[in-house]
Design brief:
single chain, 16 helices, Proton glutamate symport protein, mainly alpha, globular, about 375 residues
Length: about 375
Amino acid sequence: MVVVPLVSASIITGLSRIGNEGGFGRVGAKMFGFYLGTSLLAILIGLFFVNLIAPGSIPMELPAAGTTQLATQDSKAVLSVLISIIPPNILFAFSQGHMLALIFFSLLFGYAISRVESVPSQAVQQFFQGVFQAMIRITHIVMKFLPYGVFCLIAKVFMTTGISSLQSLALFTLTVLLGLATFMFIGLPLLLKFIARVKPTWHFKAMGPALITAFSTSSSSATLPITIDCVEKRAGVSNRICSLVVPLGTSINMSGSALYECVAAMFVAQAYGIEISFMTQFLVVLLALITSIGVAGIPSASLVAILVILRVIGLPPEGIGLFLAVDRLLDMCRTTVNVFSDSCCAILVARSEGEKNVLAKDPAEIVLEDA
């Protein structure tokens, strides 16, 4: 009920804003390059850990699967999925929930809106922004009932399997946390040090208030004003770069969510005993990269993208119940990573544009001066 309008409206509104902000020039190309590069790095880190630890290999009680056919290793099947990205009839794709076709059309449509005249462009943008806000409101209503559903799911598992059911869930949590920590404390700092040529420790200090807010609210959208303030005033990025990169990053640069989606899809496949071939794993990586663009900056929004990936690669969407119990904790962690990744992209773009004041002094000194 929620997936199709939420994903399409999120992608369309996110991309359509770029044209009005002049983002398709040199700065826009750099911005998208860093967005895709950091998200791909995060996904590959998650894929490495989920294959290394294999959290779904421990026997556990599985939710009953519906009629969905499980994934196949046939490369022709993967090729047919890639071909189906371009829909012959977009209304049919919307009605049937063909998510790859939906995402492709939304990306194309959002870009087209940004290139037409301002008056009709603003009208269409406002319409889809209204759809997006309405779907977020519906999602919030659904999320209020989610704890009861999670309680029933976990209670049933405990009644049938006992404490042993926690082993696989604990390994899944460990896998996600290891992936997020590696990306945030090793991957991104290396980019800051060797590409942006700034001190990563200073950037962690600069982003402290935003990271704390992101962890506590689980919402990159709610954290956005604090993120902009930290990047601009504490890290020293110009308003020209900050006002473009950070708000758009909140909509389309979800590195932590992309990592989580990849690990979750592979975890469900392992739990159901499905051998995922290299081609299918490549498809999972591609889908995690694409769907992370459409993830709303609200709590637990990644669950929508995970459902998309499970459906496309042929895994039962009921498998999402395997990790719902720990999603809130992991949501807090991946939101923190999302916000930090957005700020790193702003630093990288600013330094590539020749800005000299970016992290030129210890942010702790700036705080003392302001005090």
